[in-house]
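Following up on my earlier thread - several people asked me to post the actual chain instead of describing it. Fair enough. Here it is, all 104 residues.
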Amino acid sequence: MGDAAKGAKIFKTKCAQCHVVGAGEPHKQGPNLHGLFGRKTGQAAGYAYSAANVNKGVVWGEDTLFEYLLAPKKYIPGTKMVFAGIKDAKERKNLIAYLKEATA
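Reply from S.P.:
Thanks for posting it. Predicted structure:
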């Protein structure tokens, strides 16, 4: 498991431009990530996902996010997410630790 405090900084610099994590917050360019863990791809209510994201059908968890955040466009070809990914495994673990706390 990563360091959630370090993950919060990563979220702020790499994710917050397009995503929020609080319950009830409006979607931005990307969907609100609240309730992410245990949810299938493309299922946040009220967000217009790509067909690729909806049809991927995986359930978000630590393992799936770890792989996805490495290279989103490889994991879900056709996704609307314009983000190259995070190559550093420790950074991904820290971000996932933050997301696990912040989106619960």
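The longest helix spans residues 89-102. That should answer part of your original question.
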